[in-house]
Design goal:
395 residues; alpha+beta; Rieske Iron-sulfur Protein; 2 domains; 19 strands; 29% strand; binds FE2/S2 (inorganic) cluster
């Protein structure tokens, strides 16, 4: 393979190759089954943030279709966040019912026959306990735990309650080099989610390159960003790269006003502060934002003074729940509030542009018309993702 001068990433990451990428991993139910068993059930998954658990007894119910279960996360009286399957030890009823994803209480009460669990998952009350036989022991019938660990305020869980790899070891140097950003101070959030009829990788790929910005984002960010990536880094299964500004974008009068009032948009260059080592590592002045992906499906987009996360949660080979959250510092005045509302709406519009491609792309891939995708040099993060997924699937 002959590489041209502009093929920076193929030179830097020769192990990724340059050939076409098979579409099979996006459309094959068998491949999806392997992803489920060999990736998602064996790696750490982000389920929330510590701010969602303000005090003892605060809980969150998180459906995890890729684990075939729902996880009940709860902060105990000792302050620790734990996770359990939302499955009663008696006859398997869901302990927490309904559509409410959040709540707060002193215990969990199963509505079927009244078995009760404390915040640490212990079974503390069984009505008519004397009717059970000596094969039943209360102390052996607490809620089934999953492992829970926290990185930079993000609450991760592992389906195995005693995983071989700690969260810190799993994130490794990528976790270290994305640490230190004031994530916990950015508690003003705007959250969007939807179910997309596409494979999780089709959705995630659309957020893993800047090749599309001049076309797809011509509406929300005309001429604002370069189509190349800077400072691409790969650390084990994780990776990151930066998107830069062109300085050719002309803000609308409203955007210009919002930019004057605060830094609340990726289209506004902020002050060069508070960035972790992996974000704009060379402190390039045209830096706009970092696209970091913690394998397999947790994206953190970091820029000056704000950050976004995306998650692409697989439901089936053809369906994905996408959640995008924007995090800002709580506004201190009306001007900052206006700026944030403007910034988050601009970003929401860009996300609508991004998500608009996904379902049609997936349907087209399923048609069988094309067997492979051709990725260019600047789509190197996508190439890395497919390689890592394949390594897990074939391990
Ligand atoms: S299923 Fe929960 S108490 Fe019977
Ligand atoms: Fe985009």
């Amino acid at each position: 393979m002959k590489l041209a001068a502009e093929h920076n990433w193929a030179r830097k990451f020769p192990e990724l190759g340059t050939g076409p990428i098979s579409v099979e991993p996006c459309v094959s139910p068998e491949y999806f089954g392997k992803e489920k068993e060999k990736i998602f059930k064996r790696v750490w998954q982000k389920l929330g943030r510590v701010e969602e658990f303000p005090g003892p007894g605060s809980w969150k119910l998180k459906p995890m279709p890729i684990w075939d279960t729902s996880i009940l996360l709860v902060r105990g009286n000792d302050g620790q966040i734990r996770g359990f399957h939302n499955v009663c030890s008696h006859r398997g009823n869901a302990v927490v019912w309904g559509d409410q994803p959040y709540g707060r209480g002193r215990h969990f009460f199963c509505h079927f026959h009244g078995w009760t669990y404390d915040l640490e998952g212990h079974l503390i009350d069984v009505p008519e306990e004397e009717e059970f036989y000596d094969t039943f022991k209360r102390c052996e019938n607490g809620l089934t735990p999953v492992a829970v660990e926290v990185w930079e305020g993000f609450v991760f869980a592992h389906l195995d309650p005693n995983p071989e790899t700690s969260l810190a070891d799993y994130l490794g140097e990528a976790g270290d080099r994305l640490s230190g950003f004031p994530y916990g101070e950015m508690t003003a959030t705007y959250s969007y989610n939807t179910i997309l009829n596409c494979n999780w990788k089709v959705a995630q790929d659309a957020f893993s390159e800047a090749y599309h910005v001049t076309t797809i984002h011509a509406g929300s960010f005309p001429k604002g960003f370069a189509s190349k990536l800077w400072d691409v880094t790969m650390i084990g299964p994780h990776h990151s790269g930066a998107v830069h500004m062109t300085d050719q974008g002309e803000p609308t009068p409203v955007s210009a006003l919002a930019h004057r009032l605060a830094t609340s948009s990726i289209a506004k260059r902020g002050e060069r502060t508070e960035l972790p080592p992996m974000v704009n590592p060379n402190r390039n002045p045209s830096f706009a934002f970092e696209l970091a992906v913690l394998f397999p499906n947790f994206l953190v987009h970091i820029m000056d003074g704000l950050y976004f996360t995306h998650q692409f949660e697989p439901i089936s080979v053809d369906q994905t729940r996408w959640e995008g959250i924007q995090y800002f510092r709580p506004p201190r005045n009306a001007g900052e509030r206006f700026s944030q509302e403007h910034g988050q709406l601009l970003q929401r519009n860009a996300w609508l542009e991004d998500t608009a491609t996904m379902e049609a792309t997936h349907a087209a891939l399923k048609s069988g018309a094309k067997k492979a995708m051709h990725l260019q040099d600047e789509e190197v993060l996508i190439r890395h993702c497919y390689k890592v997924v394949d390594e897990y699937v074939n391990a």
